[in-house]
Amino acid sequence: MTIPPTIDRTGPGARPTAEGVVSGLDLTGRTCVITGASSGLGRESAYALARAGAHVILTARHAGAAEKAVAEIRRKAPSARLTTVVLDLASLDGVRVAAARIADLAPAVHVLMNNAGVMFTPFARTDDGFELQMGTNHLGHFELTRLLLDRLRAAEGARIVNLASEGYRIADVDLADSQWEKRDYDKFRAYGASKTANILHAVELDRRLRDDGVRACAVHPGRVATRLARHMTRADIAAVPVGRAGTPDRPRFDQGVLTPQEGAATQVWAAIHPEPLGLDGVYFAGCAAVPDIEDYAVAVDRAAELWELSERLCR
Length: 315
Fold this sequence. Notes:
This protein is α/β, with parallel strands linked by helices. The chain has 11 helices and 10 strands.
């Protein structure tokens, strides 16, 4: 399989799409697992990878939503090889059931795309008592990934792609109070912390697994028009503290509002491109490494501490 080292952008201001990233590729024989694949970035990633011949396992919280996504993909790619698995990331028991089902379906997993997430939700707790955003965005994916490690190693060259966000700049993870038991809840900071956790998780995954041929990274899809922002009011949009965690006048990666097809390009690129994880960095946007990243999001010692904390919480 040959993949060009850069993404072709045709015309001034042209932006890559997930479909464009896989154009001309043959991914037959590869199995890709995508969480939150019933809509938005997950569904566009599933379509692009399946169109290129991969077996895509779409996970979603509701079986009906996953089957609807499959029907929509097959209208555009009738020969797509697709399987659905119900996965509730807000329940560790649900994660374990889904992981066992995926393991039954796939002797090897070549791509695990931890795509699902929630954003700026009102205060709530998961079935296991975790703060909803940290529990869904990080801990559910942490446990799913842990349970699929044998299948990822079996692929002999797997990729793990965590969906992060520039929202990570809002807040670091408070390792002493990761579940908001000692502080007044702030939904913006809780979201930012969960996205920082996604990046730190990728840092530690890559450190632990690279000798086994498994590479991990985190990606920022850009500002994408999806249902992820469904919990936000107009007042919320105006109040998002984009500069709270860093220097307010520091430039940020921004391509304007993207379509889901454009937003999914980076995560698909990171999943199949032969070289992106050989670059200096673990965080990508716009199909390239992001050079300007806050130190706390890539600190090796903090990544190890978060891993140990996550293991204790998920026992």
